[in-house]
Amino acid sequence: MAGYEKMAPGVFRIRQxxxxxxxxxxxxxxxxxxxxxxxxxxxxxxxxxxxHVARCLKDLERETGSRVRQILPSHAHWDHFSGASALAxxxxxxxxxTEAMVPLVRTRACYRAAYREGTSALRPRAGALxxxxxxxxxxxxxxxFSLSMGIRAVTGPFSPLAVGDHLATDAxxxxxxxxxxxxxxxxxxxxxxxxxxxxxxxVLSHITTxxxxxxxxxxxxxxxxxxIRELPGLRLILPAHGxxxxxxxxxxxxxxxxxxxxxxxxxxxxxxxxxxxxxGRSLVRHYYPRMAPxxxxxxxxxxxxxxxxxxQEGDVARTAEKGLWRYHPL
Length: 330
Fold this sequence. Notes:
Blueprint: E1 4-8, E2 11-18, E3 25-32, E4 38-40, H1 47-64, E5 70-72, H2 78-81, H3 84-90, E6 94-98, H4 102-105, H5 108-115, H6 128-149, E7 158-161, E8 166-169, E9 172-178, E10 187-191, E11 196-200, H7 218-229, E12 236-239, H8 248-273, E13 278-279, H9 280-287, H10 293-299, H11 301-312, E14 316-321, E15 324-329
Parallel strand pairs: 4-5, 5-6, 6-7, 11-12
Antiparallel strand pairs: 1-2, 2-3, 3-4, 8-9, 9-10, 10-11, 13-15, 14-15
Helix pairs in contact: 7-8, 8-11
């Protein structure tokens, strides 16, 4: 049985799963065969995950008579770039990176530093000893997660790519579009001939896109959704996770409304709290009262991003109280 699925003429989905360690994790990688061809997103860097993708590409090239010789991550999150160098070592492939991705993915240290929160929406910095203990605990968790999920830097040679560039494949020509918000270094591939968008993490069919500090931007994400919705002839979005989005205008409209609703909700909850204010942690408990701590720490990202946005815009103020930030209306 082939490990890939035809999504449209010249567009094939390779489903990659990582099941060892923490929680099952699934990715959609998209192979676009051609004279050089392209793999959009590289997935995990575990040996099993990389071997699976390499086998699929070999079988796909045999079936189509075309080649897949380039790898392009959609953005600088681990599940989109970690397999790139390992695949390039196993097969005759070259890695493509945008200028914005390069400082984030070239070493593990750079990646950790790029996503280490400079400021927290939930708590102020503690004393030096407490902060050192937290940093050590975070580093141990990071190392365990990295080993389990196969997080690997893009250490080998790469070729530069820019927004506005075009890539030719058997499925036609794909334009590189900017898609910041979820991550500042996010790109998408748009095929105006077929109306297909490879959207990375920007539009998912079954859940909302994760947003959170330090590299998400609520307003940039809103603008990206509006850009996607206005693409002429858009008929299908192929996301990095989950099912295809077959009614993309409806789905992007839903997501735009959802983000506006959440922003309004948080602003109104702070206003309703009056002079006493409320803590970010109380908002997390309100939205996720029964969620397991690990999942909640991920899900709360949008709450933190929203509070930091309101603080930046001057809509709220905050004070430190008993090791937590308390937010007050202005």
